[in-house]
Amino acid sequence: MSVARVPLNIFGIGFGLAGLATAWRVAVRFDLAPHEVSDVLFAIAALAWLASCIVYLRYALSVRGALGRDLRDMTAGPFASLAFITPVLLAAGGIAPYFQVTATVVIDVLVVGIVLLGAWLTSFWMRGGTDIDRLHPGYFLPTVAGGLVASAGAAEFGQALLAEVMLGLGLVCWVIIGPMIVAR
């Protein structure tokens, strides 16, 4: 039985919906929108992220070496980080209002995943796995977006030191990766 290829950018669906839900939650804080809509959007985003995880894992477990090939892919590889970044948004905006301790633990665990995946991808790219002609803004996702989103999530729960470290990671990586993408 042949399994259709599932690209890593499938995680962008939940990421976009989580971003919409987060924007709606900000509007709620300023009394510009009803709270219930943001809850529904977070639930939809969580379902989309979960469905993406299930679909991708089914594919990766069915096709030998698929995950490794996808992570080394010059175009789609950086999108793997959205599997870790999206739940940070979901925890900070969707879980925290109801279960703050749970959200804090989830974010702390995801920060470890973001840092490890970002470090692995960066080391792969630095070892010669990068073709300058194939660089695109998606390369900001693993380290820059991961660092900045994790920083915002940690700050939401009063973890100032973790928030500062992740902000520093995001900004330093932005300064390093930005010129390469612009030069392309």
Automatic annotation (TrEMBL):
Protein name (database record): Tellurite resistance protein TehA-like permease
- The residue ranges crossing the membrane are 7-28, 40-59, 79-99, 105-126, 138-155, 161-183
Q: What is the lineage of its organism?
A: Bacteria, Bacillati, Actinomycetota, Actinomycetes, Propionibacteriales
PANTHER family, per database record = DEP DOMAIN-CONTAINING PROTEIN (PTHR37955:SF1), TELLURITE RESISTANCE PROTEIN TEHA (PTHR37955)
Pfam families (UniProt xref): SLAC1
One GO cellular-component annotation of the UniProt record comes to: plasma membrane
Entry GO MF terms: monoatomic cation efflux transmembrane transporter activity
- Which compartments does it reside in? Membrane
Recorded source organism is Microlunatus antarcticus
Which UniProt keywords are given for this protein, alphabetically ordered?
A: Membrane, Transmembrane, Transmembrane helix
Output the InterPro entries linked to this UniProt entry: SLAC1/Mae1/Ssu1/TehA, Tellurite_res_ion_channel, Voltage-dep_anion_channel_sf
Q: Which topology term describes how it sits in the membrane?
A: Multi-pass membrane protein
